[in-house]
Design a protein that fits this description.
Layout lengths: L3 H4 L3 H17 L3 H5 L8 E5 L7 H8 L4 E6 L2 H14 L4 E5 L12 E6 L9 H11 E10 L5 H11 L2 E6 L3 E6 L2
Parallel strand pairs: 1-2, 1-4, 2-3, 4-5
Antiparallel strand pairs: 5-7, 6-7
Length: 181
């Protein structure tokens, strides 16, 4: 697959990123930002590019007992980290999923909401990635896509070019999109 080897950070980079985010979120809660996503109890949510799992706990709190959170990543260490988190916090409705390139084993039209935070800038071949996110969402689902380390205009251009999304809202940190099925 084009770009996948370059998109996955080396193991040492993953460990350093995990440590950075533990310190970062210790001093700065992500709850206010995360709450702006509009996740409701009972939702099925996919954290695509979950990394060490920093957003799983607030996602789980938002979906409640009847909801479900899928934690998806291409990095085996991310899935290992999420599994440890699940065991430590007894999170029975979190499902870790190892992606294979730009695809994962989750069924079509499964999610009410997918979010991809601080990772879109790393995707080299955006169309297969955006098609996959579109496949995962229900017809009335929502995608939250954070710019990461790229300009907003670049994010919007990539999304528009895919032909799979309508941008329905912009905030300072992300765009909100609905799928064009």
């Amino acid at each position: 697959m084009l770009g996948i080897d370059r998109e996955m950070i080396p193991d040492i980079g993953f460990y350093m990123m995990s440590l950075f985010f533990k310190v970062y979120y210790f001093f700065r809660s992500q709850d206010k930002y995360f709450n702006s996503f509009g996740i409701k109890p009972g939702f099925v949510v996919i954290d695509y590019g979950c990394g060490p799992g920093d957003y799983i706990k607030p996602a789980l709190a938002a979906v409640g007992e009847k909801g479900k959170v899928y934690a998806v990543d291409i990095h085996k260490l991310a899935i290992k980290s999420v599994k440890k988190l699940i065991k430590r916090k007894d999170m029975h409705n979190v499902i870790p999923v190892l992606a294979d390139g730009y695809s994962c084993s989750i069924k079509d039209n499964k999610a009410d909401l997918v979010y991809a935070l601080d990772m879109f800038h790393m995707i080299e071949d955006v169309n297969p990635f955006l098609y996959e996110l579109n496949r995962l969402l229900k017809k009335d689902g929502i995608l939250i896509l954070e710019d990461g380390h790229q300009k907003r205009e670049s994010t919007k251009e990539k999304v528009r070019y895919s032909g799979k999304w309508e941008i329905i809202e912009e905030t300072e940190r992300h765009i909100r999109c609905k799928p064009l099925k």
